[in-house]
Amino acid sequence: MEKTKHRGTEIFFQLTRRHLLVFFKNKVRVMYTLLVPVIIFAVYIFFLRELELSAVRNTLHDLGIAADASLTKYLQTLVDSWMLSGIAALSTITVSLQTNTVFVEDKQNGVNRDFVSSPINKNVLIGSYILFNFVVTLLICLVYLVICLVYLACMNEFFLGLVDFLQIFGILLYATVSSTLMTVFICSFIKTEGTMASLIAVFSTAVGFLIGAYMPLGMLPSGVQWVCAFIPGTYACSLLRYSFMATPLAELTHYVVGVMQLEGGETLIAELTGTFGYQLEFFHVHVDVGFQAVALAVFILFFLVLNIFSGKRLAAVLGVGKKRRKQHGIPAGMPAGGEEAAAKPRAEERNGSPSEEKEE
């Protein structure tokens, strides 16, 4: 029993290693996957950043507050932290989705039929794809996180401490788990690379708005907010924002209220937190951070159960379908690898047994 268990664990990690090698062997795919969050980051820096800062300046003008150099720097830090955290949350989904191309390619190229014909438990195979996806997604998101921290340091906007960094890493880990389970389940229904490419294009474009990465959810129509409430990335994005912005917001509040002692300081802070969606709200109802963490945990369990119970369907997809079995005359209980074995006796019946020819 223990030997069988050990063998299953060994196969599990060997399969995971195989998926990683296949992914990283394709340099173009690796670069494209890595460039997706970097490109969004570059678009923000060169095009969107000034628009966000312009909105903040308008808020200051409406409140009659004159910004000095220090206040400007605090505001820039807050705006950058808001956007960078949103991109980080978005990356856990888009990168995870793109990583599943290995899973889909194996289906299309028939590699999975070799797995099914071998004595490999289907749950071990599916679990190896999930672990592979998680590892790649986390690695690429950590690379993006390092880029963010370097940018904040270069802009003299680095206010994060060790506790903040550990909190960000923990939430990023948490978000990666939820994104991995969600995208693996979605992609289990995809059979061709063409369909996968279309899904990536459409889903990656829409999900940034649906999780509140580009704008606060309160600005979206009520119908769209209902959809957002059932996407785990919404809560992951809000949690990352909270961890990214907590210290910069505290520093800004201290400077505005404590140092400058502005009359409208508290109003300014309230305006900024509302404008940038620092606190998650659905239909004008504030969602507490603790509830967000619980909601994300529920989604993780939900998609975990879906992946477990969809194992039967995944096994059917990974093997040979009923139509193909009927075409090739393969018995229902025979694995995909038995197709050649089933065809061989039929060929011998048509051409005559080799042993009989030899005797003749």
TrEMBL record:
<feature type="transmembrane region" description="Helical">
    <location>
        <begin position="82"/>
        <end position="103"/>
    </location>
</feature>
<dbReference type="InterPro" id="IPR013525">
    <property type="entry name" value="ABC2_TM"/>
</dbReference>
<feature type="transmembrane region" description="Helical">
    <location>
        <begin position="28"/>
        <end position="47"/>
    </location>
</feature>
<keyword id="KW-1133">Transmembrane helix</keyword>
<feature type="region of interest" description="Disordered">
    <location>
        <begin position="324"/>
        <end position="360"/>
    </location>
</feature>
<feature type="transmembrane region" description="Helical">
    <location>
        <begin position="165"/>
        <end position="190"/>
    </location>
</feature>
<dbReference type="InterPro" id="IPR051784">
    <property type="entry name" value="Nod_factor_ABC_transporter"/>
</dbReference>
<feature type="compositionally biased region" description="Low complexity">
    <location>
        <begin position="329"/>
        <end position="340"/>
    </location>
</feature>
<feature type="transmembrane region" description="Helical">
    <location>
        <begin position="197"/>
        <end position="217"/>
    </location>
</feature>
<feature type="domain" description="ABC-2 type transporter transmembrane">
    <location>
        <begin position="74"/>
        <end position="308"/>
    </location>
</feature>
<dbReference type="Pfam" id="PF12698">
    <property type="entry name" value="ABC2_membrane_3"/>
</dbReference>
<feature type="transmembrane region" description="Helical">
    <location>
        <begin position="124"/>
        <end position="153"/>
    </location>
</feature>
<dbReference type="GO" id="GO:0140359">
    <property type="term" value="F:ABC-type transporter activity"/>
</dbReference>
<keyword id="KW-0472">Membrane</keyword>
<feature type="compositionally biased region" description="Basic and acidic residues">
    <location>
        <begin position="341"/>
        <end position="351"/>
    </location>
</feature>
<protein>
    <submittedName>
        <fullName>ABC transporter permease</fullName>
    </submittedName>
</protein>
<feature type="transmembrane region" description="Helical">
    <location>
        <begin position="289"/>
        <end position="309"/>
    </location>
</feature>
<dbReference type="GO" id="GO:0016020">
    <property type="term" value="C:membrane"/>
</dbReference>
<keyword id="KW-0812">Transmembrane</keyword>
